[in-house]
Each structure stands twice: as structure tokens, then as C-alpha cells.
Design goal:
The complex is a heterodimer of chains A (1054) and B (457).
Chain A lengths: L11 H4 L2 H8 L7 H7 L1 H4 L5 H20 L23 E9 L2 E10 L2 E7 L12 H10 L12 H13 L4 E5 L5 H13 L3 E5 L6 H11 L4 E4 L6 E5 L10 H10 L14 E6 L4 H5 L2 E4 L5 H13 L9 H14 L6 E5 L4 H13 L7 E7 L6 H12 L5 E5 L3 H4 L3 H7 L5 E6 L11 E4 L8 E6 L2 E5 L12 H8 L12 H14 L9 H11 L1 E3 L13 H7 L8 E5 L13 H4 L14 E6 L7 E2 L12 E8 L2 E10 L6 E5 L23 E2 L5 E2 L1 E3 L5 E7 L13 E5 L2 E4 H5 L19 E3 L3 H20 L5 H9 L5 E6 L8 H9 L7 H5 L8 E9 L4 E7 L8 H5 L5 E3 L5 E3 L9 H4 L7 E2 L28 H4 L14 E2 L5 H13 L12 H5 L5 E5 L6 H6 L4 E3 L10 E4 L1 E3 L7
Parallel strand pairs in A: 4-5, 4-12, 7-8, 7-10, 8-9, 12-13, 13-14, 18-23, 19-22, 28-32, 30-41, 31-40
Antiparallel strand pairs in A: 1-2, 2-3, 6-11, 15-16, 16-17, 18-26, 19-20, 21-22, 21-27, 24-25, 28-29, 31-38, 32-33, 34-35, 36-37, 39-40
Helix pairs in contact in A: 6-26, 8-18, 9-14, 12-13, 12-14, 14-21, 15-17
Chain B lengths: L18 H13 L4 H27 L14 H12 L1 H12 L5 H25 L27 H34 L2 H10 L7 H34 L11 H27 L8 H32 L2 H12 L3 H13 L7 H4 L2 H28 L14 H24 L5 H11 L1 H4 L4
Classes of the chains: A alpha/beta (1054), B mainly alpha (457).
């Protein structure tokens, strides 16, 4: 062929070329190569002979065979026919919505990618949750893609509706069972249903209820409501068994307020913080954060409240309570007596009399109007226990002929669950409305599947006048119908336009136009108001200040408080992750370690742990002596005549003769993740004489060791403490350091002298500052003895551009675990299941280490979020033989998954042990098939199905077997922030980049930023003498700074 | 070769052998049907090799999760076995190279088998670095080969990469050394055989004719290889020790490791030579060539190196105490008294205390005691590596991550399996090659043969 290069116009020079101009006039190019080729004599006289032909044929056939036999992956990518305006592939869209499950509420932003919700973030516009989230809210997105969801109604909707309507019309007694329902529009819909069926009644109950408190407030103030607690305004917080940071009513909201007054100003001469006393029987998340814990047996709770009241008002404290607690409460009473309006007393008790006395205590301390107000009362617990108990007996008596169960699970979570389940057989018509199957649903005749809240419309009023919107972020995945719509359909409501595209949306909007729109005067047209509300996700209407007066006769109630029981008792509690079992089908939550016990995938029988000299802790009946090897004993526990086998865990902070077990486990009719996990302790609950459920009981007999050993003990932290103290031979020694050793007296200082945790009492802050300064100076001195001084290196590589870092305030961290779940969701961190966790194969990039310190009988706790420290002199980087982990120019320690061959040398050499190997094919991303591990006996391994995979974050690589992974500082977010700034032609602004853990944190314990930004939040956080680097003397030059833990312990109160 | 030998020295060849008898004695085991004992041993070894194959399959198919390693303890039996085998592989080269340079005549009786053992041990050792990686199908990433990814090179800072070079060099040089020594002996075998066997040995002996030129070149090559191999004896285990010494983990980060590891390697290597030789000389009836003299010499080496290792252990403890560094102090405190105390006791007993009986000549020359001791040392050295690797990792910096370790059947299977691999190879070796270097023994016959050195015989 001729050189025809010039025929292509490649630059303006060619414009003047006469050849080109000539050519441009012709329709066809002069030299069509084909013609040339055809003209070539040789081509026409083809020299291909028979042999060549056979060669080509052979090769062609062979090549085709090889190519055809390669399995070509099926790609299910379907392009948009018409691309929606709001979707740009690769760019996330956020929608404001609300996470609601029963009484749990979080205002959220839902991150969607290509139409799939993949992550939940906090909504910072919310006046309730202030942008924080809980672990439960973070995990909710996975429930949307739960393979075990209810997908179809029992029958075709129209047919089923007709049958149900017919049955309801002929029913004499219709009951609707629901948990707390905070939706005003749903209430309205329910109202229409009740009007249509006058025989119907709604019974609202909560598995872990505040019934006693609601009744007490009715008695004291005439309003059965939960007041507005201001934890930020209290200097003294006293909690009688209320786990207000973990599970109680609106924990996220309370934790946000609580943390405000717990952060210590490092600059202050005499820093202040609130003082928190927890009176409780087992160590709850809240108790572990308390400055002082007063241990009482569960049945002594009432006596403790009574004693405290008496101590305050100057009465005789009596002798019902154990002496130690009595003295402590006396000291506490003296401490808080004068501080009017600066104290907040809460109680988790579900007993009316006890709660009335708590009200009286608050009244006495002047809390009402300052730390407790009745303006924004909470709707987050509405359930009453007595009507539910009544309903069970009505059912048993066959008085109810139609039952509609909405999202509730009384066949599991009532103390009389077995009776309820049995009595269900007597109900003629039973309808179950829910997103997921449960024990109750399995007994119902009709199942009306409801959409997940991320597919649904709705509204919430968690606190008076504070409204929040639920909007769908994806079209319903299954054949579902919203519960509210079902009620309206069955009520034949004229207000429901059943032909509309989204009938309930119209209904909701109409309700907002009539009821909420008039409550504001910022917007003149409803549409702008509606748009704004949808955009913000929240709307706050003014409420009138309520002036309530305490009218109860406290002495009458004091007399009603029951005397403490005798014998061995068990306290039953709700965990941060599992609730009362309603979160059991979420694998992320199952694998979230309990903050205090650090166990996953199950509930364990807490046995008291003490020390009486020697080289091991003394546990009840010498059980669990080899917990540090992952072995736990199984005991038989009998309560209410119901005996069950349950695995033990040695627990600090249990009161004498007290055991503990979590509620919400041992579910049977539930998604794969919850099935058979743990032991069902619901049947061990009891009721008091008012019919309110009591979350403790007396053991029928001593727990009996079965002799079995549970080798699958999924506890992620075998080692309890950071050095707790005790007496030996008259002198105080560090017990833990002694018990660590199999032989000998232990190495005193072996734990406490490590530069991992620095903590001190508030009064000793200045000493602590000096200690930190001294230790850090020494570490720096050691680190200077190097051929490669870090300062030069830092100057050379990081003085320009970004240098990412993080600051974590140990005083703000309450250990709730929201960050951990957020990290799992953001970074596609695999779930591994019970067996694997028990082998310490958990994959979490971020964990919250828990250390106890102080007296071994009643220790304090510090939580330390621990993730990759992004060391600038990282020990992992230089040991990788293939260079799979390396350092970015912005100070990030990076993992190149494709390059990793899995020698684990990096993991061994990591002082923080944050690197995780994919031991098995956890993500089904492996080369081989058939070697996936099941998480909890599921048929298709979790994550292998296409539905579950929809939750994956497309910005983060899914790692295959044999590859190491670890925290990346959410490098995808850093990259996104940088690109956005670049596109907008500006430099990065403060807050542009926040990793998932930071956005999830409700207390603001985590600050991410650029070390080179001198005015940023990070620089501000680092400007503190309480700051330190963990293991600074190893000269790894880590980038995560911690601020020391300060407690406000009062030695008189313990 | 020096021709002056002190009459005080004990003879190294007993039985008044002639050159022909030597040839007969050493060649005959390869020429007759193997004994029943051999068949039984071979069957057992093959069975263990089968266990190895199955464990490898299991590991590769399911993943490293089939081992009981965890987020805290990233290495345990795998690297313990690796270091153990590499250590065992040290005796051969030491005997061949260093003792050759030092003109130690007693080496001739044992060098062949020791070199073979070295090679087989290094082959066994080499299995673990391959198998322990998460993605074995990509293990070639570890070699610095030209590629289209940049090109992307390996990380020359990583001790694991140094290992790759150290071990592969060591294997190559050891193999060459061993084979060089075999060439004249293969020629001897060839000369005694017929047919296909003759042709094979002819090929293996590279057409050796025994001409003076051949012998001269052979001597020269042996010396050059000895010179090359000598630094390797010291470097290989030094580099293996760098895997730990260059890390930041207290209990690993120790400058004493290189000499300590080398001494330990020689210690364990000699113990393994003893184990094998005591059986071989009995089974193959080579007592006249592998004499009590040899055994005693090796026991002396064991005593010396065992004591060096003991001193190293104590030095470590002293240094930890003296360091004033809490992590270091705790690591050693924990090593001795923590939950893995039994492995420390095992190590101390087997490696330091028990070899002290070799101060007594009677014990050094007692075959039964020597055999038991050689097993003790091998067990002790295994414990040493376990102590260093697993115990250290189990409790490092952050107490929150501390863990405990027990092996799974797969890990045990791999260990037992490499024993199978080792013995299979060794048993085959005794069938196809002279287990004692014929030419070298003949070279010392006139100076160390009993009929020459001790007239009274």
C-alpha cells in the first residue's frame, strides 16, 4: 500500500495543503486500499494451496474450539433505556429519610448508587439525632436486601383483601397488635380503620417496654408520656439501671447530649465534666461509661431508688439494701443535694411505684424545667404491658376472632409467648403485616408483606412536634404493600386513591397538607413546604411549653416498692445490636461484638468474676477457666421452671449472686442470620403485680454445669482488662498482670506501663498531662536514635499537599459500635459467622477495644476505637515481599489487593493487629467454586446471591480469599472529595471528606482531617496536652491520635 | 591431603578394609533387593506423603482458614516447620564445606548422607513458604521477573524476599556440591553394572573415566564449591532469622538472632544427621564406615552448639530485663511463664539441659543415648521456633488482640506430611546412590583405616 498518511487531516497545516483540498472535493478517496489490493496480481492468483488451506482450517478450528470452551462470564448489565435525570452513573445521590423500627428512630440520609440504597448516614439537620446514627440504623440497609424477606402475599392482593374484609365484617372482636408506632399519618389511617370496624381495638406493646414509666408519669403528672431529657444540661447524671447510651428509649439522642458534657477542655485550668453514677446489676454499655457504678441485685433496684429518695429527703434509709450500695447512695445523695436543677435521675425500671419515686427524686432535685422538660415529649415508647397481658388471656378465652399483627412478634417476645402462640389457634382470622417473617407471622392465616422502610413512604413524630419523613429510595423489590395502605383498603377509606401510582404517598401528602402545613409559617405554598421537608427530611413545628405538676403521693408508692428477693437472680437485658430480637436477622448486627462482653453471634450467661489470689480469676463454680483459649462452659439454667442450656461468659461488674443474659436471641422463625443463634431468654421474664414486665427473675436452682464445653465461643477479645487492681498480702497489686501468667507472680506493670491507654481522674488531669508529656518525650528520644530521622522525611514528603490523619477522643467514645457497622457497610467488609469469629477470623477493619481498669470488683471501662493507624513509618510496608502494601504521597497506608499474595507478614508485624486476611472465601469472589463458608447454616452462602450483593459499595473492591485487607481511611471518600473540589475549581474545604466512622459517630469522638490544614478541626483536636499516639515508642509514626480518657470518679460513691 | 596423622586419633574406617571391600560394602545396598525393613519404612513414608498431598489439597482448596491461624497469630506451625527444616538442612553443607576446608577427615563417612539430608530438608522447608501464602496461584509474584505491569518489581526491603534468594541459592549450591561428590561414585556404580542401569549411571557420572585430569578438576571444583558454600552456611539462617529480627514485634526484634539461629541450625542439623546415620549404618551395615568416632565427633558439635544456643536463650532474657523496655520485658516474661510455658520448658529441656550429658565421653559414644538425644534435640529445636513464632505473636502489643493457638489437623498433616516427603526422598536416595562417599573414604583409608593407623589391630 502506498503511504497515504497525508490523506488524513491531522492539523491546521494540512488545511493549506493543495493535495488535501483537491481530495476534499472528491466524493471518494483516491486510493481505496481494497482496490489496490484487488489489483495486486498475486492476490488474484492466490498462492494458497491445499496444504495452506488445511493449516488455516486446522488453526481456525482449533482456535474456535479453544475460544468456545472458555467460559465467558455472564454480565447482567442492562443500560437505561431512558436515563433518569437524577442518576449519574458513578455519582451517589442522597435522600433524606428516617430509620424507624418500633420505637427506634434515627433521622438519616440514604446514599444511593445507580438506584440502589447502599449506605445510611446521619442527618445533621435533625434536632433529635443531630447527624449521629446507631449501629441499628447503620445496619438497616442490609435488611432491604434480606433474602428471607416476605416477598408475596398469601394470596393475590385483591382476593386476600376481599377475604379479610369479609372476615373482619363478621368479626365481633378485632384486635390489632403493634409495637410503638410514631407515625401520625399511620395513626390517622389506623383511626379510619377503627372507625370502619368499631369492634376493633389497638393493643400497643413493646418487647422491652417503658410501660411502668408511662403509667408512673400518668400518676405523677397526668400525662402518660416520656419527657424530654437533657443529658447535656446535667452536672450529675444518676441512672438506676437505664442503659440510656445503649438501648434505652432514644439512646442515640441521649448519647449525643451526654457526650457534650463529658468532653474535657484540655486548655482549662480546672476542667469540668458531668458526673455519672450508674446503679445497676450487670455492666451495661451505660454502666461501663459511668464514673461510679453502684452494684445492686436486680431485685434491689426498687430498694435502691427508695434508699436514695430517703437519703435525699433525710429519712431513714432502712436496711433493705446491701450495705455497700446503701453507703454509696448516701454519699451520692450528699453530693447532689444542693445542686438544684443540675441533676438528672433516670431509671430503666418497669415498675410504676419505682418510677413514681424517681419522679419524686427529680422533683426534689429540681430537675423538672431544667434537665427534664415536658415540651418535646418523646413518642418512642408507647407500649403498655397490662393490655397486652389482658389480650393474651382474651385470646386464651377465645374472645378474639380476628387478629391483625403489625410488625410485632408477641409469639416470641412476650413472657407468655408460648401461651400466645397456643391461643393463636383459637383466632379465626389472623393477618400478619411485616417486612420479614417471624414466630407470630408463622401462625397467621394471611400474610400481607410490607415494604422495607427504604422502599416506603411515611412520617414519624419521635418527639412532640418534631416530624421526620420516610421516603422511598428504591422501587419495591417485592410484591409488597404498605401496612397503612392495607388498613385503608380494608377500611374502604374514601381518602385512599387506590388507582394512584403510589396511593399511600397521596394519602400522606394530603395529611401533611391538612395537619402539618398549617403548623408553620415559613412557606406559603404547600408544595414548597413539602419539597423542603422532603429535602431536609425533618420538620419541626413549635409546641407550647407544658407545665406539669407532680401530684402523686410519693409515700404511698414508697410503700409499694417490693422488698429485695433472696437467692440467685438473673438480670435480662437488651443488647445494643439485637434489641429484643427484632434485629436478629441482620448479619452485620449479629457480628457486631457486644461492647462490654465483646461476644458476637449469641447471648451468654454472665457469671460473676472475682479474684481471691492465685494466678487465675475466680469465676462462679470455677467455670470458664480457659476463656483465654476460646473455651467456654455450658450450664443449665432454670427460671420460671423453664430450663435451658446456655454458654457462660465470665463478666465483671455483676452484683453478688447475680447472673445475666441478653434478650433477643434463640429465634426460630427468622432470617438465616438469627435462626438458632443463642438462647431464648424471653420465657425467663416475669411480670410485677401491675402486669408490667420485669427484666429480672429468681433462678429456680443453682446453674448446673452440664460438663459440655463450647469451643465455638465467638468472643473477639479474650483478654478482659487493662490492669485491674486487687489486694494481695495487704498491698495493692495489678491482678490482671498476675493472672496473665500461668506460673509465678506476674509481671507488675506489664500491662499498665504500655502506651496504649492513658487515663486519669478529673482531679488529676494535670498530673496526667505531665505523665503523657514525659512518656511522649521519652518515646521521641528513643525515636531520634535512628539513621532516618522522621522529621526530615516528613518535611520532604508531606509538607506539601495533604497529609491525612485522625484524632479520636476517648472521652467522647461510648463504645456503641455504630462506627464499626458503618465501616462494614461502607467498605464491603465480609461477615464470617459464629465459627469463624470464634477462631478470631473476624474481618472488621475497625474494632472498639474495651479495657477495664481500677478495682477488680467494680472496674471502670475505656473504649478505644482501633483501626489502621496509617503509620508513616509503617512496619507492614517494608516486610511485604511483593510490595502489595505501600505508602501514598498523602500519608495513607494503602493495600493493593490485586498484588497481595497473603504471606501475612504485614499482619504479624502490625503492632496494632488491624490487618485482616480473608481466611476463606468469605465474599464468594474466589477462583474456585464450592468452597464458600456459610455464615449460619444458610443454603446459598451469605453474599453469594444477587440480592444481597446489591448492598455492596461499588467504589470499594470486594476482596477475594487469601488477600489481606484493612482500614483505608475510606480512601474512596477522600478521592471523591478531592475530585469534587477539583471539578468545582476550589481547594478542599473542611468537612469535605469524612470517613464512614466519623459520620456514624453520635458523640463526635472521631475527627478526620489534613495535618497540613492548620485551621482545620483536626489541628484543633490535636492542640491538646491530652493527646498521644498509641505505641509511639515503636517509631511507627502513626497518624491516628488519641485523647486520654478522663473519668470523674468519686471514691466516696463506690 | 596430609599424610601425617597422629597415632592418638581413633581410626575412621574399621574392619581392615581394602579398597575393593569399601566398594563392595557401599555399593551393594543399591544393587540387591531392598530389605523388608526398607519396604516397611518406605510404605510408611509414602503413606505420610499421601497425608501431605491431601493436606496440601485441603489448604489450597479451602484456604488458609483451614489452619488455626488468626488475626493475631499469622504464622505458627507453617513457619515453625519452615525454619525447623531449613535448620536441619544446615548440617550437610557445614560438614561438606567447612569441614572440608578445615581438613576434618571424619567428615568423609557422613558427608554424603548429610548433604542428601540437607537437600531433602531444604525441599521440605521450601514447601511452607509456598503453601502458607493466601493465594498460591500468584506466588510467582515473589520473583523479580520482567513484566508488563510497569514493570512492577518485588520489594527488595522485605526479608521474605531475601529468604527466597537465600534458600534458592542454598539449594542450588548444596545440590551442585552433592552431585559433584556423587560423580566418581556414580562411575563406580556404572562400572559394576550392566544394561539399562549401566547407561543411566553412565549418564549420571558424565562419562567419568577416573583419569588424573578428571580427579584434578573434581578436586578443584569441590574446593571452589566448598568456598562458595561456606558463607552460605552462615548466611541462610542469618537471613531466615531476619524474618523476625527486622520486625517490630517484641521477642522478634532482636539483634542476637543471626548467630543464635545459625548455631541452632547446626545444632539441629547434626541431630538430624545422627538420627539418620544411626539408623542407616545399622540397616545398611555400614558400621565400619560410620564409626563411633564419627558419632562422637558429631556429639561434640551438638554439645558446643547446644551450649551456644543455651547461652543465647539466657542472653535474650538478660537483654530483655536490661532493656528497660516494657514490651520486651513482658514478651520474655510471657514466653517463660505465660500460657505457652510448656513449649519454653520443652525447648530449654531438650536443647540446653539434655545435651549437657555429652560432657561425658561414655555418653558421647553410646549409640542408644545418642539416638535418643538426637530426637530430643530435634523436638527441642522445633519448640524453639514455636516459642519464637507463636508465643510471641499470641501476646504482642495490644492486649485486646491477644489470642491463643492450637493447630488443626491440616497443619499437623502438613508437618507429618513433610516428614513423609523427607523420608521418602531419603529412602529412595539410599537405593540409588552410595550413602557414603566411596572416593572420599578411600582417600583417607591409608591414613585413618584401622589397619594403618593402629598397628595393634
Amino acid at each position: 500500500m502506498k503511504n497515504n498518511n497525508k490523506e488524513v487531516w491531522i492539523g491546521h497545516n494540512d488545511l493549506n495543503s493543495p493535495e488535501l483540498q483537491e481530495m476534499a472535493k472528491q466524493e471518494f478517496a483516491n486510493n481505496i486500499p481494497v482496490v489496490d489490493t484487488m489489483a495486486d496480481e498475486q492476490v488474484m492468483e492466490s498462492s494458497t494451496n491445499r496444504r495452506d488451506f488445511l493449516k488455516y482450517l486446522g488453526f481456525g478450528l482449533g482456535a474456535a474450539t479453544v475460544a468456545a470452551s472458555c467460559e465467558i462470564p455472564v454480565k447482567r448489565a442492562i443500560p437505561y433505556v431512558v436515563k433518569p435525570d437524577e442518576i449519574v452513573p458513578g455519582v451517589a445521590t442522597y435522600y433524606a429519610s428516617s430509620f424507624v423500627k418500633g420505637g427506634d428512630y434515627t433521622s438519616i440520609l440514604v446514599k444511593t448508587r445507580e438506584g440502589r440504597p447502599i449506605k445510611i448516614e446521619g442527618n445533621s439537620l435533625s434536632p433529635v439525632t443531630h447527624g449521629g446514627t446507631t449501629a441499628r440504623a447503620q445496619a438497616a440497609v442490609l435488611d432491604l436486601y434480606n433474602v428471607n424477606r416476605l416477598q408475596n402475599p398469601t394470596k393475590d392482593w385483591a382476593e386476600m383483601d376481599a377475604e379479610i374484609k369479609g372476615a373482619l365484617a363478621s368479626a365481633n372482636n378485632i384486635r390489632i397488635i403493634t409495637n410503638t408506632n410514631m407515625s401520625p399519618t399511620a395513626q390517622k389511617a389506623m383511626g379510619e380503620f377503627l372507625a370502619a370496624y368499631p369492634n376493633a381495638q389497638v393493643v400497643t406493646y413493646d418487647a422491652v417496654s417503658a410501660s411502668g414509666m408511662l403509667e408512673a408519669n400518668e400518676a405523677s403528672f397526668g400525662v402518660a408520656t416520656i419527657p424530654n431529657y437533657h443529658f447535656d444540661k446535667a452536672d450529675n447524671i444518676i441512672s438506676f439501671g437505664a442503659d440510656f447510651l445503649g438501648t434505652w428509649i432514644s439512646a442515640g439522642e441521649y448519647a449525643h447530649g451526654y457526650a457534650k458534657n463529658r468532653k474535657v477542655d484540655p486548655k482549662a485550668e480546672n476542667p469540668t465534666m458531668s458526673h455519672h453514677t450508674q446503679v445497676e446489676s450487670y455492666m451495661s454499655l451505660t454502666g461501663s461509661n459511668a464514673d461510679n457504678r453502684i452494684m445492686v441485685r436486680p431485685s434491689e433496684q426498687g430498694a435502691a431508688i427508695k434508699a436514695f429518695y430517703n437519703a435525699l429527703v433525710g429519712n431513714n434509709m432502712g436496711s433493705e439494701l446491701n450495705e455497700k450500695a446503701s453507703n454509696a447512695l448516701k454519699a451520692l445523695a450528699n453530693k447532689v443535694k444542693g445542686a438544684n436543677g443540675k441533676t438528672l435521675v433516670v431509671s430503666g425500671s418497669n415498675n410504676v411505684a419505682e418510677q413514681v419515686v424517681v419522679n419524686a427524686i427529680n422533683e426534689y432535685l429540681g430537675s423538672y424545667g431544667s434537665t427534664i422538660t415536658f415540651d418535646r415529649t418523646s413518642n418512642q415508647r408507647q407500649g403498655l404491658d397490662k393490655p397486652m397481658a389482658q389480650l393474651v388471656s382474651d385470646l386464651k378465652g377465645g374472645k378474639v376472632d380476628a387478629l391483625i399483627v403489625m410488625d410485632a412478634n408477641p409469639a416470641y417476645d412476650l413472657p407468655e409467648a408460648a401461651d400466645f402462640a397456643e391461643a393463636m389457634a383459637k383466632v379465626k382470622t389472623s393477618v400478619f403485616i411485616s417486612t420479614v417473617p417471624n414466630e407470630t407471622g408463622a401462625l397467621c392465616k394471611y400474610v400481607a408483606p410490607a415494604p422495607h422502610f427504604l422502599e416506603a413512604w411515611g412520617d414519624v413524630e419521635p418527639k412532640a412536634g418534631m416530624y421526620s419523613i420516610i421516603q422511598p429510595t428504591i422501587a419495591p423489590l417485592f410484591n409488597t404493600r404498605q401496612a397503612e395502605e392495607s388498613f385503608l383498603v380494608w377500611a374502604d377509606s374514601p381518602n385512599l386513591n387506590a388507582d394512584a401510582d403510589q396511593p399511600y404517598y397521596e394519602y400522606l401528602k394530603a395529611n401533611w397538607e391538612t395537619n402539618m402545613f398549617p403548623k408553620q409559617n415559613n412557606f406559603l405554598s404547600f408544595q414548597t413546604f413539602w419539597d423542603k421537608t422532603l429535602h431536609d427530611g425533618v420538620f419541626t413545628a413549635p409546641v407550647a411549653a407544658s407545665n406539669v405538676r407532680n401530684a402523686a403521693d410519693v409515700n404511698a408508692y414508697l410503700a409499694q416498692i417490693a422488698k429485695p428477693g433472696q437467692g440467685e437472680e438473673i438480670v435480662l437485658f437488651e443488647t445494643v445490636a439485637m434489641g429484643a430480637g427484632q434485629y436478629a436477622e441482620n448479619p452485620w448486627l449479629q457480628e457486631l461484638p457486644d461492647p462490654v462482653t465483646r461476644t458476637t453471634w449469641g447471648n451468654y450467661f454472665g457469671i460473676p468474676i472475682t479474684w481471691e489470689g492465685g494466678n487465675s480469676m475466680v469465676t462462679y463454680q470455677n467455670l470458664n477457666q480457659e476463656e483465654y483459649k476460646g473455651k467456654a462452659d455450658v450450664v443449665e439454667v432454670s427460671v420460671n421452671g423453664k430450663a435451658q442450656d446456655i454458654t457462660c461468659i465470665a463478666s465483671f461488674g455483676l452484683a453478688a449472686n447475680t447472673f445475666s443474659a441478653a434478650l433477643g436471641f434463640g429465634r426460630t422463625e427468622v432470617g438465616f442470620a438469627g435462626k438458632g443463634v443463642g438462647t431464648n431468654s424471653m420465657a425467663w421474664l416475669s411480670r410485677d403485680k401491675d402486669g408490667n414486665v420485669q427484666y429480672f427473675n429468681t433462678l429456680d436452682a443453682e446453674p448446673k454445669p452440664t460438663g459440655e464445653i463450647d469451643y465455638e465461643f465467638p468472643c473477639v477479645q479474650y483478654h478482659h482488662t487493662f490492669g485491674i487492681t486487687g489486694q494481695e498480702d495487704g498491698k495493692e497489686i495489678n491482678v490482671d498482670e498476675k493472672t496473665l501468667m500461668a506460673i509465678g507472680e506476674g509481671f507488675q506493670g506489664g500491662l499498665t506501663d504500655r502506651s496504649i491507654i492513658y487515663q486519669a481522674n478529673l482531679s488529676e488531669v494535670n498530673d496526667l498531662k505531665a505523665k503523657i508529656a514525659e512518656k511522649r518525650d521519652f518515646a521521641k528520644h528513643l525515636n531520634e536514635a535512628t539513621l532516618y530521622p522522621y522529621e526530615e522525611y516528613q518535611e520532604k514528603f508531606y509538607s506539601q499537599g495533604h497529609h491525612w490523619g485522625m484524632a479520636i477522643d476517648l472521652n467522647a467514645c461510648i463504645g456503641c459500635g455504630a462506627c464499626q457497622v458503618a465501616c462494614v457497610a461502607e467498605n464491603n467488609v465480609p461477615v464470617v459467622g459464629k465459627t469463624e469469629v470464634s477462631r478470631h477470623h473476624e474481618m472488621t477493619w475497625l474494632r472498639i477495644d474495651r479495657y477495664f481498669f481500677g478495682d477488680h470488683e467494680n472496674p471502670n471501662t475505656v473504649y478505644q476505637p482501633m483501626m489502621c493507624q496509617h503509620c508513616d513509618n509503617a512496619p507492614c510496608e517494608n516486610v511485604c515481599p511483593v510490595g502489595a502494601t505501600n505508602h501514598s504521597s498523602e500519608g495513607l497506608n494503602q493495600m493493593t489487593y490485586n498484588r497481595c499474595i497473603g504471606t501475612r507478614y504485614c499482619a504479624n508485624n502490625c503492632p496494632f493487629k488491624v490487618r485482616r486476611l480473608n481466611w476463606y472465601d468469605y465474599t464468594t469472589a474466589d477462583l474456585f467454586g464450592g468452597n464458600e463458608v456459610s455464615v449460619n447454616g444458610e443454603e446459598i452462602p451469605f453474599g453469594a446471591d444477587n440480592l444481597t450483593r446489591m448492598v455492596l459499595n461499588p467504589d470499594v473492591t470486594v476482596r477475594s480469599r487469601g488477600v489481606i485487607e484493612k482500614c483505608s481511611f475510606c480512601v474512596q471518600r477522600i478521592q471523591e472529595g478531592k475530585l469534587t473540589a477539583k471539578k468545582e475549581g476550589r481547594s478542599l474545604r473542611e468537612g469535605d471528606i469524612k470517613p464512614a466512622c466519623q459520620t456514624a459517630c453520635v458523640t463526635g469522638a472521631i475527627t478526620f482531617g489534613d495535618f497540613n490544614n492548620e485551621n482545620g478541626a483536626l489541628a484543633k483536636a490535636l492542640d491538646s496536652e491530652l493527646n498521644y499516639l498509641v505505641l509511639e515508642e515503636t517509631n511507627v509514626q502513626s497518624s491516628v491520635h488519641y485523647s486520654a480518657k478522663i473519668i470523674n470518679r468519686d471514691e466516696a460513691i463506690s | 591431603m596430609s599424610s601425617v596423622v597422629s597415632p592418638i586419633r581413633q581410626p575412621l574406617v574399621n574392619g581392615g578394609k581394602t579398597y575393593h571391600q569399601i566398594t563392595e560394602d557401599i555399593c551393594s545396598p543399591t544393587e540387591r533387593m531392598p530389605s523388608t525393613q526398607w519396604f516397611i519404612a518406605f510404605a510408611v513414608s509414602i503413606a505420610f506423603l499421601g497425608v501431605f498431598a491431601f493436606s496440601v489439597f485441603w489448604t489450597v482448596y479451602w484456604g488458609i482458614g483451614s489452619w488455626n491461624l488468626n488475626r493475631t497469630i499469622g504464622w505458627s506451625w507453617d513457619i515453625t516447620n519452615f525454619v525447623w527444616w531449613v535448620g536441619i538442612g544446615h548440617a550437610g553443607t557445614l560438614i561438606s564445606a567447612i569441614l572440608l576446608l578445615f581438613r576434618q577427615k571424619w567428615r568423609t563417612g557422613v558427608n554424603r548422607a548429610a548433604e542428601a539430608m540437607t537437600i531433602f530438608a531444604v525441599i521440605c522447608a521450601g514447601q511452607y513458604p509456598l503453601l502458607h501464602v493466601g493465594r498460591i496461584w500468584l506466588v510467582f509474584f515473589i520473583f523479580p521477573y520482567p513484566n508488563t505491569r510497569g514493570p512492577l518489581w518485588v520489594n527488595f526491603n522485605s526479608p521474605l524476599l531475601w529468604d527466597v534468594f537465600a534458600i534458592s541459592t542454598y539449594l542450588t549450591v548444596s545440590l551442585l556440591f552433592w552431585y559433584t561428590g556423587l560423580v566418581p561414585d556414580f562411575a563406580t556404580l556404572r562400572d559394576r553394572s550392566k544394561g539399562i542401569r549401566r547407561r543411566i549411571y553412565n549418564g549420571l557420572s558424565f562419562g567419568w573415566t577416573g583419569s588424573a585430569k578428571h580427579w584434578q578438576r573434581w578436586e578443584a571444583l569441590s574446593l571452589i564449591l566448598a568456598g562458595l558454600a561456606t558463607p552460605l552456611v552462615l548466611s541462610v539462617h542469618t537471613i531466615v532469622s531476619f524474618d523476625f529480627a527486622t520486625s517490630v514485634i517484641p521477642g522478634w526484634h532482636t539483634t542476637i538472632f543471626p548467630p543464635y539461629f545459625v548455631a541452632g541450625a547446626i545444632f539441629s542439623g547434626f541431630a538430624m544427621v545422627q538420627t539418620l546415620m544411626i539408623i542407616t549404618r545399622k540397616v545398611l551395615k555400614l558400621q565400619d564406615y560410620i564409626t563411633l568416632e564419627h558419632i562422637e565427633s558429631m556429639n561434640k558439635v551438638i554439645l558446643v552448639t547446644g551450649t551456644i544456643v543455651g547461652v543465647a536463650y539466657l542472653t535474650e532474657l538478660f537483654n530483655a530485663w536490661d532493656s528497660g523496655y516494657i514490651y520486651e520485658q513482658f514478651a520474655f516474661y510471657n514466653r517463660v511463664l505465660g500460657p505457652f510455658y510448656w513449649s519454653y520448658i520443652g525447648m530449654m529441656t531438650c536443647n540446653v539441659l539434655s545435651p549437657q550429658i555429652f560432657w561425658w565421653k561414655k555418653m558421647r559414644r553410646n549409640i542408644f543415648v545418642t539416638f535418643i538425644m538426637s530426637l530430643f534435640v530435634n523436638v527441642g529445636m522445633w519448640f524453639e521456633r514455636f516459642v519464637i513464632i507463636a508465643t510471641t505473636l499470641a501476646r504482642d502489643y495490644l492486649p485486646s488482640s491477644w489470642s491463643y493457638y492450637t493447630p488443626t489437623w491440616v497443619e499437623i498433616g502438613l508437618f507429618v506430611g513433610t516428614l513423609g516427603l523427607f523420608f521418602t526422598l531419603f529412602l529412595l536416595f539410599t537405593r540409588v546412590a552410595p550413602v557414603v562417599a566411596i572416593a572420599e573414604v578411600k582417600s583417607i583409608l591409608k591414613t585413618s583405616g584401622d589397619q594403618y593407623s593402629h598397628e595393634e589391630h
